[in-house]
Design a protein that fits this description.
Layout: E1 8-19, E2 22-33, E3 37-41, H1 48-55, E4 63-68, E5 71-72, H2 78-83, E6 86-89, H3 101-106, H4 115-125, H5 127-131, H6 142-154, E7 160-164, H7 172-187, E8 191-196, E9 208-213, E10 216-222, H8 223-241
Parallel strand pairs: 3-8, 3-9, 6-7, 7-8
Antiparallel strand pairs: 1-2, 1-4, 4-5, 9-10
The structure holds adenosine-5'-triphosphate.
Amino acid sequence: MSSTTTFCAIELRGVSAGYDGIEVLHNIDLSVPAGQVLAVLGPNGAGKSTLLSVLAGLLKPNAGDLVLGGRTMTGADPSVLARKGLCLIPEGRGVFPNLTVSENLWLCTNRGSTKVRVEERAFRVFPRLGERRTQLAGSLSGGEQQMLALSRALVTDPAILLLDELSMGLAPMVVADLYRSVGEVAATGVTVVVVEQFVRTVEGIADRGIALIGGRVALDGPIAEITPELHSAYFASHKEQS
Ligand code: ATP
């Protein structure tokens, strides 16, 4: 695909961003074509979550622009971006532990969908949630909570899904299951940006990967091609840190 002819769902142009005057991301250029699955990889503290916060409009860049579907949206309220189809699942799942599975899903009916319809859609993708519909979300396993978080996102029909370390604290088989579902969603044309520390968790679904090292894009390419380079880049950055 040529980047000049591809419609980009979401882009960062020359973005620098950080916290309290400390710059974490330095001059990031990134474009994600519509329907692509991009993996943002990198070691602890590289700035991956910060990058997602900028993409979701939660953190305003100090320099550069956030562009959504060709329109500059820098500084737009996150709720405006959400109405344009941007949906972030933050690290730590974001489900309401004291509500049941069904009640968590019913909160997503604000865009006109009925309770029955949101349940149907969620339980089709994750039948296990259907079996647990009356159970409190806080009593679900980590993997099931992540399924619920994903379901809550999916029933809002996102155009762009931003996922922060879906795999955190979960067994490899559960992670593989979750990413299989993410792959199915991506196959319907949803643009997906996934943050993960390790490439093996996403190599089955990501079209392309970037490696963030020290807040800069150190590698950018098809996931299979950057994997070997990634290992040496991690090594180098760990050596620098130790
Ligand atoms: P991890 O995999 O550990 O979550 P990451 O690559 O996602 O790492 P970030 O969470 O983006 O990295 O953090 C990048 C840097 O920004 C770190 O030095 C971190 O301490 C700092 N940082 C992150 N969030 C904040 C915040 N809210 N306020 C101040 N500094 C922050």
